Amino acid sequence: DPALLAQAAGAAAPADLDAYWMPFTANRQFKQAPRLLARADGMHYWTPEGRQVLDGVAGLWCVNAGHARPKIVRAIAEQAAEMDFAPPFNMGHPKAFELAEKLVQITPAGLDKVFYTNSGSEAVETALKMAIGYHRARGEGTRTRLIGRERGYHGVNFGGVSVGGIAGNRKTFGPLLGGVDHLRHTHDLARNRHVRGVPEHGAELADDLERIVALHDASTIAAVIVEPVAGSTGVLLPPKGYLERLRAICDKHGILLIFDEVITGFGRLGAPFAADYFGVTPDLMTVAKGITNGSVPMGAVFAKSFIHDAFMNGPEHLIEFPHGYTYSAHPLACAAALGTLETYADDGLLTRGADMARPFEDALHALEGLPHVLDVRNIGLVGAIELEPIPGQPAKRAFDVFLECWRRGVLVRVTGDIIALSPPLIVETSHIEQIAGTIGEVLKAQA
Ligand code: PLP
Asked: Which domain of life is it from (predicted)?
Protein backbone atom coordinates (compact mmCIF):
# COMPACT_ATOMS: atom_id res chain seq x y z
CA ASP A 1 0.00 0.00 0.00
CA PRO A 2 1.77 3.20 -1.15
CA ALA A 3 0.12 5.31 1.57
CA LEU A 4 1.35 3.00 4.32
CA LEU A 5 4.81 2.87 2.79
CA ALA A 6 4.94 6.65 2.63
CA GLN A 7 3.83 6.84 6.25
CA ALA A 8 6.48 4.34 7.34
CA ALA A 9 9.16 6.16 5.40
CA GLY A 10 7.98 9.50 6.81
CA ALA A 11 8.44 8.19 10.32
CA ALA A 12 12.11 7.68 9.48
CA ALA A 13 12.74 11.37 8.74
CA PRO A 14 15.27 12.69 11.28
CA ALA A 15 14.29 15.37 13.80
CA ASP A 16 17.72 16.95 13.92
CA LEU A 17 20.33 17.28 11.20
CA ASP A 18 23.00 18.93 13.31
CA ALA A 19 25.40 16.18 14.41
CA TYR A 20 26.05 14.52 11.05
CA TRP A 21 29.00 16.16 9.26
CA MET A 22 28.24 15.08 5.70
CA PRO A 23 30.91 13.97 3.18
CA PHE A 24 31.52 15.91 -0.06
CA THR A 25 28.43 17.96 0.72
CA ALA A 26 27.61 21.65 1.00
CA ASN A 27 26.54 21.00 4.61
CA ARG A 28 25.03 24.41 5.30
CA GLN A 29 23.05 24.50 2.07
CA PHE A 30 21.84 20.92 2.60
CA LYS A 31 20.67 21.47 6.14
CA GLN A 32 18.57 24.45 5.10
CA ALA A 33 16.67 22.31 2.59
CA PRO A 34 17.50 18.64 3.14
CA ARG A 35 17.18 16.11 0.35
CA LEU A 36 16.40 12.82 2.01
CA LEU A 37 16.04 9.35 0.56
CA ALA A 38 14.19 6.73 2.55
CA ARG A 39 13.52 3.76 0.29
CA ALA A 40 14.68 2.32 -3.03
CA ASP A 41 13.52 -0.29 -5.50
CA GLY A 42 14.57 -0.96 -9.10
CA MET A 43 15.12 2.33 -10.92
CA HIS A 44 13.65 4.50 -8.16
CA TYR A 45 14.13 6.15 -4.79
CA TRP A 46 11.37 7.45 -2.55
CA THR A 47 11.69 10.37 -0.15
CA PRO A 48 10.44 10.11 3.45
CA GLU A 49 7.23 11.80 2.24
CA GLY A 50 6.78 9.09 -0.37
CA ARG A 51 7.74 11.14 -3.43
CA GLN A 52 9.21 8.98 -6.21
CA VAL A 53 12.58 9.96 -7.71
CA LEU A 54 14.09 8.31 -10.79
CA ASP A 55 17.70 7.31 -10.19
CA GLY A 56 19.74 8.73 -13.07
CA VAL A 57 23.08 7.95 -11.44
CA ALA A 58 22.84 4.43 -9.97
CA GLY A 59 23.09 5.92 -6.49
CA LEU A 60 26.68 7.07 -6.90
CA TRP A 61 27.74 5.10 -9.98
CA CYS A 62 27.36 1.88 -8.03
CA VAL A 63 23.86 0.35 -8.08
CA ASN A 64 24.35 -1.19 -11.52
CA ALA A 65 21.60 -3.82 -11.20
CA GLY A 66 19.07 -1.40 -9.76
CA HIS A 67 17.93 -1.24 -6.15
CA ALA A 68 16.77 -3.96 -3.75
CA ARG A 69 17.52 -6.92 -6.01
CA PRO A 70 16.15 -10.03 -4.26
CA LYS A 71 19.22 -12.29 -4.63
CA ILE A 72 21.46 -9.64 -3.11
CA VAL A 73 19.04 -8.81 -0.28
CA ARG A 74 18.67 -12.50 0.56
CA ALA A 75 22.42 -13.19 0.42
CA ILE A 76 23.15 -10.39 2.89
CA ALA A 77 20.36 -11.38 5.29
CA GLU A 78 21.33 -15.06 5.29
CA GLN A 79 25.01 -14.31 5.76
CA ALA A 80 24.32 -11.94 8.67
CA ALA A 81 22.49 -14.76 10.46
CA GLU A 82 25.05 -17.44 9.58
CA MET A 83 28.34 -15.69 10.36
CA ASP A 84 28.70 -11.96 10.99
CA PHE A 85 32.47 -11.67 10.85
CA ALA A 86 35.57 -13.74 10.35
CA PRO A 87 39.12 -12.45 10.88
CA PRO A 88 40.83 -12.08 7.49
CA PHE A 89 44.46 -12.25 8.71
CA ASN A 90 45.82 -15.80 8.71
CA MET A 91 42.20 -17.02 8.63
CA GLY A 92 39.64 -17.32 5.85
CA HIS A 93 36.04 -18.19 5.11
CA PRO A 94 34.67 -20.14 2.14
CA LYS A 95 32.79 -17.31 0.42
CA ALA A 96 35.93 -15.17 0.14
CA PHE A 97 37.58 -17.90 -1.95
CA GLU A 98 34.42 -18.71 -3.91
CA LEU A 99 33.97 -15.06 -4.80
CA ALA A 100 37.60 -14.65 -5.86
CA GLU A 101 37.30 -17.63 -8.23
CA LYS A 102 34.10 -16.21 -9.73
CA LEU A 103 35.53 -12.72 -10.08
CA VAL A 104 38.65 -13.81 -11.96
CA GLN A 105 36.43 -15.65 -14.42
CA ILE A 106 34.89 -12.34 -15.52
CA THR A 107 37.95 -10.08 -15.33
CA PRO A 108 40.16 -9.59 -18.39
CA ALA A 109 42.57 -12.47 -19.04
CA GLY A 110 45.67 -12.34 -16.87
CA LEU A 111 44.15 -10.47 -13.92
CA ASP A 112 44.00 -13.65 -11.87
CA LYS A 113 44.58 -12.58 -8.26
CA VAL A 114 42.16 -10.63 -6.06
CA PHE A 115 42.94 -8.57 -2.95
CA TYR A 116 39.87 -7.33 -1.06
CA THR A 117 39.38 -3.84 0.37
CA ASN A 118 36.33 -1.91 1.57
CA SER A 119 36.18 0.98 -0.85
CA GLY A 120 37.61 2.39 -4.02
CA SER A 121 39.95 4.63 -2.06
CA GLU A 122 41.39 1.63 -0.24
CA ALA A 123 41.69 -0.30 -3.49
CA VAL A 124 43.78 2.54 -4.91
CA GLU A 125 46.11 2.67 -1.88
CA THR A 126 46.47 -1.10 -2.11
CA ALA A 127 47.32 -1.03 -5.82
CA LEU A 128 49.91 1.74 -5.36
CA LYS A 129 51.57 -0.19 -2.52
CA MET A 130 51.51 -3.41 -4.56
CA ALA A 131 53.24 -1.62 -7.43
CA ILE A 132 56.04 -0.24 -5.27
CA GLY A 133 56.38 -3.50 -3.32
CA TYR A 134 56.52 -5.51 -6.52
CA HIS A 135 59.52 -3.64 -7.88
CA ARG A 136 61.31 -3.89 -4.53
CA ALA A 137 60.57 -7.62 -4.26
CA ARG A 138 62.34 -8.26 -7.54
CA GLY A 139 65.31 -6.11 -6.64
CA GLU A 140 64.43 -2.76 -8.23
CA GLY A 141 63.69 -0.81 -5.07
CA THR A 142 64.45 2.52 -6.76
CA ARG A 143 61.15 2.31 -8.64
CA THR A 144 58.94 4.22 -6.20
CA ARG A 145 57.61 7.10 -8.27
CA LEU A 146 53.89 7.13 -9.08
CA ILE A 147 52.38 8.85 -12.10
CA GLY A 148 48.77 10.02 -12.09
CA ARG A 149 46.89 12.37 -14.37
CA GLU A 150 45.39 15.84 -14.13
CA ARG A 151 41.66 15.69 -13.40
CA GLY A 152 42.02 12.09 -12.20
CA TYR A 153 40.03 10.95 -9.18
CA HIS A 154 41.35 8.04 -7.17
CA GLY A 155 39.51 8.45 -3.90
CA VAL A 156 40.42 10.51 -0.89
CA ASN A 157 43.27 8.79 0.96
CA PHE A 158 46.74 10.30 0.80
CA GLY A 159 48.04 8.11 -2.04
CA GLY A 160 44.90 8.54 -4.11
CA VAL A 161 44.80 12.30 -3.61
CA SER A 162 48.51 12.51 -4.45
CA VAL A 163 48.13 10.77 -7.81
CA GLY A 164 44.74 12.42 -8.30
CA GLY A 165 44.45 15.65 -10.20
CA ILE A 166 41.70 17.71 -8.60
CA ALA A 167 43.01 20.92 -7.05
CA GLY A 168 40.05 21.24 -4.71
CA ASN A 169 40.79 17.86 -3.17
CA ARG A 170 44.55 18.48 -2.89
CA LYS A 171 45.18 22.05 -1.80
CA THR A 172 43.83 21.71 1.74
CA PHE A 173 45.93 18.76 2.79
CA GLY A 174 49.57 19.76 2.69
CA PRO A 175 52.39 18.40 0.56
CA LEU A 176 50.83 14.95 -0.01
CA LEU A 177 53.09 12.12 -1.21
CA GLY A 178 56.47 13.03 -2.65
CA GLY A 179 57.71 11.40 -5.84
CA VAL A 180 54.51 11.85 -7.82
CA ASP A 181 54.07 13.36 -11.26
CA HIS A 182 51.07 13.83 -13.53
CA LEU A 183 50.17 13.35 -17.17
CA ARG A 184 48.00 16.04 -18.72
CA HIS A 185 44.30 15.28 -18.89
CA THR A 186 42.70 14.49 -22.24
CA HIS A 187 39.70 16.83 -22.17
CA ASP A 188 39.85 19.11 -25.20
CA LEU A 189 36.64 20.84 -26.23
CA ALA A 190 38.46 22.88 -28.87
CA ARG A 191 39.07 19.70 -30.88
CA ASN A 192 36.44 17.27 -29.59
CA ARG A 193 32.91 18.59 -29.09
CA HIS A 194 29.56 16.84 -29.00
CA VAL A 195 31.36 13.59 -29.72
CA ARG A 196 29.47 10.31 -29.64
CA GLY A 197 31.81 7.77 -28.04
CA VAL A 198 35.57 8.19 -27.92
CA PRO A 199 37.03 11.40 -29.36
CA GLU A 200 39.22 11.45 -32.44
CA HIS A 201 41.95 13.80 -31.22
CA GLY A 202 44.46 13.51 -28.41
CA ALA A 203 46.18 10.10 -28.49
CA GLU A 204 49.50 11.96 -28.53
CA LEU A 205 48.82 13.13 -24.96
CA ALA A 206 49.95 9.66 -23.87
CA ASP A 207 53.45 10.72 -24.95
CA ASP A 208 53.54 12.85 -21.79
CA LEU A 209 54.70 9.62 -20.19
CA GLU A 210 57.81 9.64 -22.39
CA ARG A 211 58.51 13.22 -21.30
CA ILE A 212 58.14 12.20 -17.63
CA VAL A 213 60.42 9.19 -18.16
CA ALA A 214 63.00 11.47 -19.78
CA LEU A 215 62.85 13.78 -16.77
CA HIS A 216 62.92 11.26 -13.91
CA ASP A 217 64.34 8.13 -15.60
CA ALA A 218 62.35 4.90 -15.86
CA SER A 219 64.41 3.34 -13.06
CA THR A 220 62.58 5.62 -10.56
CA ILE A 221 59.03 4.98 -11.81
CA ALA A 222 56.84 2.23 -10.34
CA ALA A 223 53.47 2.74 -11.97
CA VAL A 224 51.04 4.90 -13.90
CA ILE A 225 47.45 5.07 -12.70
CA VAL A 226 44.55 6.34 -14.81
CA GLU A 227 40.82 5.94 -14.99
CA PRO A 228 40.15 4.53 -18.49
CA VAL A 229 37.20 6.97 -18.54
CA ALA A 230 37.55 9.68 -15.89
CA GLY A 231 34.20 9.73 -14.09
CA SER A 232 34.24 12.08 -11.14
CA THR A 233 35.70 15.07 -12.98
CA GLY A 234 32.93 14.96 -15.52
CA VAL A 235 33.18 11.93 -17.81
CA LEU A 236 36.40 12.59 -19.72
CA LEU A 237 36.90 10.04 -22.48
CA PRO A 238 40.21 8.61 -23.68
CA PRO A 239 40.98 9.70 -27.24
CA LYS A 240 41.12 6.97 -29.85
CA GLY A 241 44.39 5.04 -29.41
CA TYR A 242 45.38 6.82 -26.17
CA LEU A 243 45.17 3.86 -23.80
CA GLU A 244 46.99 1.59 -26.27
CA ARG A 245 49.80 4.13 -26.46
CA LEU A 246 50.02 4.42 -22.67
CA ARG A 247 50.20 0.62 -22.45
CA ALA A 248 53.00 0.49 -25.03
CA ILE A 249 55.08 3.15 -23.28
CA CYS A 250 54.65 1.40 -19.92
CA ASP A 251 55.82 -1.88 -21.48
CA LYS A 252 58.80 -0.21 -23.09
CA HIS A 253 60.02 1.15 -19.74
CA GLY A 254 59.01 -1.60 -17.32
CA ILE A 255 56.36 0.60 -15.68
CA LEU A 256 53.20 -1.03 -14.29
CA LEU A 257 49.90 0.22 -15.68
CA ILE A 258 47.02 0.54 -13.21
CA PHE A 259 43.46 1.07 -14.40
CA ASP A 260 41.16 2.52 -11.79
CA GLU A 261 37.87 0.89 -12.80
CA VAL A 262 35.90 1.86 -9.71
CA ILE A 263 33.29 3.46 -11.98
CA THR A 264 33.88 1.69 -15.30
CA GLY A 265 33.94 -1.83 -13.82
CA PHE A 266 30.97 -4.20 -13.88
CA GLY A 267 29.26 -3.29 -17.10
CA ARG A 268 29.15 0.51 -17.05
CA LEU A 269 30.55 0.84 -20.61
CA GLY A 270 28.59 -2.10 -22.03
CA ALA A 271 31.47 -4.55 -21.53
CA PRO A 272 32.37 -6.19 -18.21
CA PHE A 273 35.32 -3.82 -17.71
CA ALA A 274 36.76 -0.83 -19.57
CA ALA A 275 39.82 -2.99 -20.21
CA ASP A 276 37.54 -5.27 -22.27
CA TYR A 277 35.86 -2.35 -23.99
CA PHE A 278 39.15 -0.79 -25.10
CA GLY A 279 41.07 -4.05 -25.55
CA VAL A 280 43.86 -2.82 -23.27
CA THR A 281 44.74 -4.88 -20.20
CA PRO A 282 46.41 -3.21 -17.22
CA ASP A 283 48.73 -4.95 -14.75
CA LEU A 284 46.61 -3.93 -11.78
CA MET A 285 42.94 -2.98 -11.77
CA THR A 286 40.99 -1.38 -8.93
CA VAL A 287 37.24 -1.82 -8.49
CA ALA A 288 34.57 -1.08 -5.87
CA LYS A 289 30.98 0.21 -6.19
CA GLY A 290 29.42 -2.28 -8.64
CA ILE A 291 31.20 -5.26 -7.06
CA THR A 292 28.35 -5.47 -4.52
CA ASN A 293 25.88 -3.35 -6.47
CA GLY A 294 26.53 -0.70 -3.82
CA SER A 295 24.82 -2.79 -1.16
CA VAL A 296 27.72 -3.44 1.23
CA PRO A 297 31.02 -1.55 1.15
CA MET A 298 33.65 -3.46 -0.79
CA GLY A 299 36.55 -2.80 -3.13
CA ALA A 300 39.18 -5.01 -4.70
CA VAL A 301 42.45 -4.97 -6.59
CA PHE A 302 42.99 -7.45 -9.40
CA ALA A 303 46.62 -8.25 -10.09
CA LYS A 304 48.40 -10.17 -12.79
CA SER A 305 50.01 -13.32 -11.43
CA PHE A 306 53.57 -12.11 -12.00
CA ILE A 307 52.96 -9.29 -9.50
CA HIS A 308 51.52 -11.63 -6.88
CA ASP A 309 54.23 -14.20 -7.49
CA ALA A 310 57.04 -11.70 -6.98
CA PHE A 311 55.94 -11.38 -3.34
CA MET A 312 55.82 -15.14 -2.75
CA ASN A 313 59.32 -15.65 -1.42
CA GLY A 314 61.08 -15.79 1.95
CA PRO A 315 60.17 -18.09 4.84
CA GLU A 316 56.71 -19.61 4.30
CA HIS A 317 55.39 -18.77 7.78
CA LEU A 318 55.98 -15.05 7.25
CA ILE A 319 53.52 -12.54 5.80
CA GLU A 320 54.51 -11.69 2.21
CA PHE A 321 52.57 -8.42 1.76
CA PRO A 322 52.18 -6.47 5.00
CA HIS A 323 48.88 -4.87 4.10
CA GLY A 324 45.14 -5.51 4.64
CA TYR A 325 42.08 -4.31 6.50
CA THR A 326 40.08 -5.71 9.42
CA TYR A 327 37.16 -5.82 7.03
CA SER A 328 38.95 -7.24 3.97
CA ALA A 329 36.73 -10.04 2.64
CA HIS A 330 33.99 -9.17 5.11
CA PRO A 331 31.46 -12.02 5.02
CA LEU A 332 28.51 -9.67 4.35
CA ALA A 333 30.37 -8.04 1.47
CA CYS A 334 31.40 -11.40 -0.01
CA ALA A 335 27.84 -12.68 0.21
CA ALA A 336 26.52 -9.48 -1.33
CA ALA A 337 29.06 -9.70 -4.15
CA LEU A 338 28.12 -13.32 -4.89
CA GLY A 339 24.44 -12.30 -5.05
CA THR A 340 25.44 -9.37 -7.26
CA LEU A 341 27.38 -11.50 -9.75
CA GLU A 342 24.42 -13.88 -9.97
CA THR A 343 22.06 -10.98 -10.60
CA TYR A 344 24.36 -9.53 -13.28
CA ALA A 345 24.49 -12.95 -14.96
CA ASP A 346 20.72 -13.55 -14.71
CA ASP A 347 19.96 -10.26 -16.46
CA GLY A 348 22.99 -10.10 -18.77
CA LEU A 349 23.86 -6.76 -17.21
CA LEU A 350 27.60 -6.81 -17.83
CA THR A 351 26.91 -6.27 -21.52
CA ARG A 352 23.41 -4.76 -21.50
CA GLY A 353 24.91 -1.28 -21.62
CA ALA A 354 25.97 -2.02 -25.19
CA ASP A 355 22.32 -2.43 -26.24
CA MET A 356 21.11 0.63 -24.36
CA ALA A 357 24.04 2.87 -25.32
CA ARG A 358 22.44 4.03 -28.57
CA PRO A 359 19.09 5.25 -27.19
CA PHE A 360 21.00 6.83 -24.28
CA GLU A 361 23.37 8.57 -26.71
CA ASP A 362 20.53 9.83 -28.91
CA ALA A 363 18.56 11.20 -25.97
CA LEU A 364 21.57 13.05 -24.55
CA HIS A 365 22.74 14.49 -27.86
CA ALA A 366 19.25 15.87 -28.46
CA LEU A 367 20.18 18.40 -25.73
CA GLU A 368 23.11 19.82 -27.73
CA GLY A 369 21.48 23.03 -28.87
CA LEU A 370 19.92 24.00 -25.53
CA PRO A 371 20.93 27.17 -23.67
CA HIS A 372 24.39 27.10 -22.04
CA VAL A 373 25.21 23.58 -23.24
CA LEU A 374 28.92 23.54 -24.13
CA ASP A 375 29.27 19.83 -24.76
CA VAL A 376 27.45 16.52 -24.68
CA ARG A 377 29.47 13.29 -24.53
CA ASN A 378 28.76 9.65 -23.80
CA ILE A 379 30.08 6.12 -23.76
CA GLY A 380 28.15 2.99 -22.80
CA LEU A 381 25.77 4.08 -20.06
CA VAL A 382 27.78 7.07 -18.92
CA GLY A 383 27.09 10.53 -20.19
CA ALA A 384 27.83 14.15 -19.45
CA ILE A 385 26.39 17.52 -20.30
CA GLU A 386 28.90 20.28 -19.78
CA LEU A 387 27.43 23.71 -19.14
CA GLU A 388 28.83 27.16 -19.54
CA PRO A 389 29.56 28.48 -16.04
CA ILE A 390 27.72 31.56 -14.77
CA PRO A 391 30.43 34.28 -14.89
CA GLY A 392 32.03 34.59 -11.44
CA GLN A 393 29.99 31.71 -10.00
CA PRO A 394 31.59 28.44 -11.04
CA ALA A 395 29.52 25.28 -10.42
CA LYS A 396 26.38 27.32 -9.65
CA ARG A 397 24.57 26.69 -12.92
CA ALA A 398 24.92 22.92 -12.73
CA PHE A 399 24.04 22.87 -9.03
CA ASP A 400 20.82 24.75 -9.80
CA VAL A 401 20.01 22.21 -12.52
CA PHE A 402 20.64 19.39 -10.04
CA LEU A 403 18.28 20.98 -7.49
CA GLU A 404 15.54 21.55 -10.04
CA CYS A 405 15.83 18.00 -11.46
CA TRP A 406 15.53 16.66 -7.92
CA ARG A 407 12.41 18.80 -7.43
CA ARG A 408 11.02 17.34 -10.66
CA GLY A 409 11.74 13.77 -9.60
CA VAL A 410 15.04 12.88 -11.28
CA LEU A 411 18.33 12.34 -9.46
CA VAL A 412 21.35 13.50 -11.46
CA ARG A 413 24.91 14.22 -10.33
CA VAL A 414 26.93 17.36 -10.87
CA THR A 415 30.62 18.00 -10.73
CA GLY A 416 31.67 21.58 -11.33
CA ASP A 417 29.45 22.73 -14.21
CA ILE A 418 29.09 19.24 -15.64
CA ILE A 419 25.97 17.09 -15.25
CA ALA A 420 26.99 13.42 -15.11
CA LEU A 421 24.60 10.56 -15.80
CA SER A 422 25.07 6.84 -15.12
CA PRO A 423 21.70 5.14 -14.73
CA PRO A 424 21.39 1.59 -13.41
CA LEU A 425 22.09 -0.88 -16.22
CA ILE A 426 18.47 -2.10 -16.05
CA VAL A 427 17.39 1.27 -17.47
CA GLU A 428 14.62 1.24 -20.11
CA THR A 429 14.06 3.71 -22.93
CA SER A 430 11.20 5.36 -21.02
CA HIS A 431 13.57 6.13 -18.11
CA ILE A 432 16.16 7.54 -20.48
CA GLU A 433 13.49 9.78 -22.01
CA GLN A 434 12.42 10.96 -18.57
CA ILE A 435 16.00 11.74 -17.50
CA ALA A 436 16.97 13.60 -20.67
CA GLY A 437 13.52 15.19 -20.99
CA THR A 438 13.66 16.58 -17.45
CA ILE A 439 17.17 17.97 -17.93
CA GLY A 440 16.05 19.57 -21.19
CA GLU A 441 13.02 21.24 -19.56
CA VAL A 442 15.13 22.49 -16.67
CA LEU A 443 17.80 23.93 -18.99
CA LYS A 444 15.12 25.75 -20.96
CA ALA A 445 13.39 27.01 -17.82
CA GLN A 446 16.66 28.32 -16.37
CA ALA A 447 17.90 29.97 -19.58
N1 PLP B 1 38.47 5.72 -7.93
C2 PLP B 1 37.54 6.15 -8.77
C3 PLP B 1 37.80 6.12 -10.23
C4 PLP B 1 36.32 6.62 -8.29
O5 PLP B 1 35.39 7.07 -9.15
C6 PLP B 1 36.07 6.60 -6.91
C7 PLP B 1 34.79 7.07 -6.37
O8 PLP B 1 33.97 7.63 -7.05
C9 PLP B 1 37.08 6.15 -6.06
C10 PLP B 1 38.27 5.70 -6.60
C11 PLP B 1 36.90 6.15 -4.58
O12 PLP B 1 36.01 5.18 -4.18
P13 PLP B 1 35.38 5.24 -2.71
O14 PLP B 1 34.52 6.45 -2.66
O15 PLP B 1 34.63 3.93 -2.61
O16 PLP B 1 36.51 5.29 -1.74
From this structure: Bacteria
CATH number at residue 343: 3.40.640.10
- Is the complex ipTM more than 0.85? yes
Which of 320, 347, 374 marks a domain boundary? 347
pTM: 0.97
85 and 58 both lie in a single domain: no
> What letter represents residue 384's amino acid?
A
Q: What local confidence, expressed as pLDDT, does residue 9 receive?
A: 53
**Nearest by Cα to 436 from 364, 371, 383:** 364
Mutate to test the pocket of ligand 1, among 232, 285, 286 (most ligand atoms within 8 A of CB): 232
HSE at residue 347, side-chain half, CA atoms within 13 A, is: 22
| Ligand 1 centroid from CA 291, angstroms | 12
- Whole-number percent of the chain with pLDDT over 70: 97
Residues 300/303/309/312 CA torsion (nearest 10 deg)? -20
Residues with C-beta less than 6 Å from any ligand 1 atom:
119-121, 124, 153-155, 227, 231-232, 260, 262-263, 288
Q: What is the mean pLDDT of residues 336-341?
A: 99
Q: What is the pLDDT of residues 379-419, one digit of tens each?
A: 999 999 999 999 999 999 999 999 999 999 999 999 999 99
Q: Are residues 76 and 210 in the same domain?
A: yes
Q: Which domain holds residue 263?
A: 70-347
